[in-house]
Design brief:
Structural class: alpha/beta
CATH topology: Rossmann fold
Oligomer: single chain
Largest sheet: 7 strands, parallel
Number of strands: 7
CATH superfamily: NAD(P)-binding Rossmann-like Domain
CATH architecture: 3-Layer(aba) Sandwich
Radius of gyration: 17 Å
Helix content: 25-40%
Distance between the termini: 29 Å
């Protein structure tokens, strides 16, 4: 199937990470013009999602160089392994985690929305996680749930404008995902499988918006309506 994103300008924030780099590679393979951004080295642009000026400068540079941003993928967040499990319910850690994931997504999405609105077209995808559906880790659940709620609220605000907003929720991501899914746990997936879920959401052929899509088996034993 032709996704019709040839020559579309796709900004991938967190584009040097495990998932972001897979999304960037998949978009390039579809003929898109991909711009990667990250806080560290190796990306096309330096972008600190916690800094409004850095976000605005990076988005402005993409628009200056390419004239538009057709799609945004935000895969930037501190890895789950960097969160202290002994402080999973500590308000300071929870607040920092929400800032590092959900507010980063919201800040970058807000920066690209004006140019997408003006064009009457845009696709925004945030990477969250199935921890949003599981109790037992307040930090992981709240930071992921906050991103999903922010994205779905943006999608409602943008309904009818041609700009769609969605979230992709992987379970554990590994190069060699296991087929087994334990009760009360999500299924594993590879970075490429996550990218395979993201790419159709960037297509002008897609009418999906305000959705939260699991990759890997959705948490086994949990009904999500």
């Amino acid at each position: 199937m032709d996704l019709q994103i040839t020559d579309h300008v796709v900004l991938v924030v967190g584009g040097t990470g495990l998932i972001g780099s897979a999304v960037a590679d998949a978009a390039r393979a579809e003929g898109a013009t991909v711009v990667t951004a990250a806080r560290g080295d190796g990306a096309d642009l330096r972008l600190d999602g916690a800094d409004d000026a850095s976000v605005d400068a990076a988005v402005g540079r993409v628009i200056e160089q390419h004239g538009r941003i057709d799609a945004l993928v935000v895969a930037a967040a501190p890895p789950a392994q960097s969160l202290d499990p002994a402080k999973q319910g500590d308000p300071a850690q929870v607040a920092a985690a929400v800032e590092g994931k959900a507010m980063t997504f919201l800040r970058i999405a807000n920066a690209v929305i004006p140019t997408m609105r003006a064009a009457g077209y845009g696709r925004i995808v945030g990477l969250s996680g199935q921890n949003a559906l599981i109790t037992g880790n307040i930090t992981g659940a709240v930071r992921n749930a906050a991103l999903i709620i922010a994205a779905q609220s943006l999608a409602d605000e943008l309904a009818g404008t041609g700009v769609a907003v969605n979230v992709v929720n992987p379970g554990p991501v590994t190069a060699s995902p296991k087929a087994e899914v334990a009760a009360g746990k999500p299924g594993e997936s590879s970075p490429e499988q996550v990218a395979f879920a993201v790419l159709p959401l960037l297509s002008p052929r897609s009418a999906i918006s305000a959705e939260s899509i699991a990759v890997g088996h959705r948490v086994r034993g949990v009904v999500a309506l």
